[in-house]
Backbone:
């Protein structure tokens, strides 16, 4: 019995990509099926960074195809090609940056900056080129989280552009690199907005797939200016389970909706505490808040993370969990979150014309 393309596609349709929530055929990932006698070669293309997921996914699909009658060997190749996607209308894309992700919260103290740092590092571990912009002028923290020594300054190219610093394979820019750590920024809103826009537009990012923007907490003038003038493809809302945090998180969701920026999903921090002595689990800040928020706005709960001392100590030491303990359960949650964020962007709509070559991640 000869093997047909239709039979191979039928097998692929039985398996759902857990990040796209679709089978690879329905998701438009199938690029080619080559049948040569009893051998089948399949090529898939994912629109999100999935370096740690690809090989296992390819092996699973290949084993399934080999169950077809008449097939003795199947090879599945999966490439990750990240395209730039359309942001708000009438905003030009940022030079050398494909996709900008805003990480925001309605209030401070919910772990937004920690989430932004681990998201960026997890995306980089998946094979993407990633940058972080610390947009929290009053309380910048990304320099500490990435272990950049106090007093480090960016180089300036041709007197016009800042060269971002680099740590753990991620490009970073922050107002903290331009001022003394002990000097408070006693600025009014317009000055802060102007400084941030200058940081964004005058930083010479080096061909990024994703730029993660660590937004200031709240929904005021600074946040609105950034949302209206920076081409953001999607936002991640960070919250904790208690009612007060959820109330402010809802305002964050509504703000992005008003400026036509898709909310990619919700991250719930401090969801549960597990006693290090007795193992007792307790929901100190309430239970199920992030899930309810995601359901209310019909978005995905991207991650629910525990109240963990390790997350805090590793970030304070300049090596966030995603790289400090990459095989830990918490790091795996961050990796899953990163792939889900990339997948939501890949499904977000129109791909715009590129001013740079595709970034391909392959086994070759």
Residues:
């Amino acid at each position: 019995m000869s093997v047909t393309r239709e039979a191979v596609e039928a097998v692929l349709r039985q398996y759902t990509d857990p990040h796209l929530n679709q089978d690879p055929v329905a998701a438009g990932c199938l690029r080619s099926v080559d049948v040569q006698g009893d051998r089948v070669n399949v090529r898939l293309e994912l629109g999100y960074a999935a370096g740690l997921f690809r090989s296992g996914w390819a092996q699973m699909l290949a084993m399934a195809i080999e169950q077809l009658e008449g097939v003795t060997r199947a090879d599945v190749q999966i490439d990750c090609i990240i395209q730039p996607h359309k942001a708000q209308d009438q905003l030009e894309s940022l030079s050398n940056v494909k996709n900008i992700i805003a990480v925001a919260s309605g209030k401070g103290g919910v772990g937004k900056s920690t989430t932004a740092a681990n998201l960026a590092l997890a995306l980089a571990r998946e094979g993407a080129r990633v940058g972080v912009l610390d947009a929290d002028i009053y309380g910048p923290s990304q320099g500490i989280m990435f272990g950049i020594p106090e007093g480090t300054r960016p180089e300036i190219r041709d007197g016009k552009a800042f060269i971002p610093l680099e740590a753990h394979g991620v490009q970073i820019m922050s107002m903290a690199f331009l001022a003394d750590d002990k000097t408070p920024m006693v600025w009014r809103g317009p000055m802060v907005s102007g400084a941030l826009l200058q940081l964004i537009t005058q930083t010479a990012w080096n061909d990024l797939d994703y730029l993660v923007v660590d937004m200031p907490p709240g929904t005021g003038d600074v946040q609105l200016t950034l949302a209206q003038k920076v081409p953001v493809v999607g936002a991640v809302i960070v919250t904790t389970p208690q009612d007060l945090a959820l109330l402010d998180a809802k305002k964050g969701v509504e703000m992005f909706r008003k400026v036509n920026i898709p909310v990619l999903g919700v991250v719930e921090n401090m969801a549960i505490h597990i006693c290090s002595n007795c193992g007792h689990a307790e929901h100190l800040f309430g239970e199920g808040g992030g899930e309810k928020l995601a359901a209310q706005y019909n978005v995905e709960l991207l991650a629910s993370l525990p109240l963990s001392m390790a997350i805090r100590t590793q970030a304070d030491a300049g090596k966030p969990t995603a790289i400090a303990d990459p095989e830990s359960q918490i790091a795996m949650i961050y990796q899953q979150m990163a792939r889900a964020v990339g997948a939501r962007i890949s499904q977000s709509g129109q791909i715009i014309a590129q001013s740079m070559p595709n970034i391909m991640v392959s086994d070759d």
Observations:
- Residues 97-361 form a domain with the Rossmann fold fold (CATH 3.40.50.300).
- Residues 354-362 have pLDDT under 50 and may be disordered.
- DSSP finds eleven helices and 16 strands in the chain.
- The longest helix spans residues 329-346.
